[in-house]
Design a protein that fits this description.
Chain lengths: ~120, ~110
């Protein structure tokens, strides 16, 4: 059974940093791209970033480019999102999502339960 | 960036009725298109991919159609568990984008 478990969310001040983790199980981790997708309170879904199975190709939304960094440790089956220079508009539930196909990010067939990041003073 | 525009924003229907949801892309995405369902407090669930293929475990009352810029999700007969928010998504180009959502509510 595929499982994705996010952690690391919490309250952080504007300008601060936070690192999210997503522990995966139930599939061959290194084969699949993974993405972060966020959802601000009461709002729709926003794709944030994606990383290839090998970790050598990464994509970012313009809204986070230069502030967020996605990485993965295939030996630990874990995905990370380093978030720096956080802003109030980054407040959201952050989901990690598995790509349906191998290679780069495609559709998202499995999702974690999400972790809430609140940016506020 | 490809913008996806969903309509209507809200669909008020009764159980047993047919639901038709639309999504229009600002440029062609071929058939690289998906639909998701999200219920309150839950993560999204993949319903359809490549415009017309049902994901694993999705009931046959869900169907998808379209290509290029215009796509439709049809629920042939609404079940109580189908009342939720539905999002479209494209994987034709980066950044991946979602529509703003259509809420299907009980009339």
């Amino acid at each position: 059974e595929v499982q994705l478990l996010e952690s690391g969310g919490g309250l952080v001040q504007p300008g601060g940093s936070l690192r999210l983790s997503c522990a995966a199980s139930g599939f061959t981790f290194s084969t699949y791209a993974l993405s972060w997708v966020r959802q601000a309170p009461g709002k729709g879904l926003e794709w944030v970033s994606a990383i290839s199975g090998s970790g050598d190709v990464r994509y970012y939304a313009d809204s986070v480019k230069g502030r967020f960094t996605t990485s993965r440790d295939n030996s630990k089956s874990t995905l990370y999102l380093q978030m720096d220079s956080l802003r109030a508009e980054d407040t959201a539930v952050y989901y990690c999502a598995k790509s349906m196909f191998g290679g780069s990010g495609s559709y998202f067939d499995y999702w974690g339960q999400g972790t809430l990041v609140t940016v506020s003073s | 960036e490809i913008v996806l525009t969903q309509s209507p924003a809200t669909l008020s229907l009764s159980p047993g009725e047919r639901a038709t949801l639309s999504c229009r892309a600002s440029q062609s995405v071929s058939s690289y298109f998906a639909w998701y369902q999200q219920k309150p407090g839950q993560a999204p669930r993949l319903l359809m991919y490549d415009a017309s293929n049902r994901a694993t475990g999705i009931p046959a009352r869900f169907s998808g159609s379209g290509s290029g810029t215009d796509f439709t999700l049809t629920i042939s007969s609404l079940e109580p568990e189908d009342f939720a928010v539905y999002y479209c998504q494209q994987r034709s180009s980066w950044p991946r984008t979602f529509g703003q959502g259509t809420k299907v509510e009980i009339k």
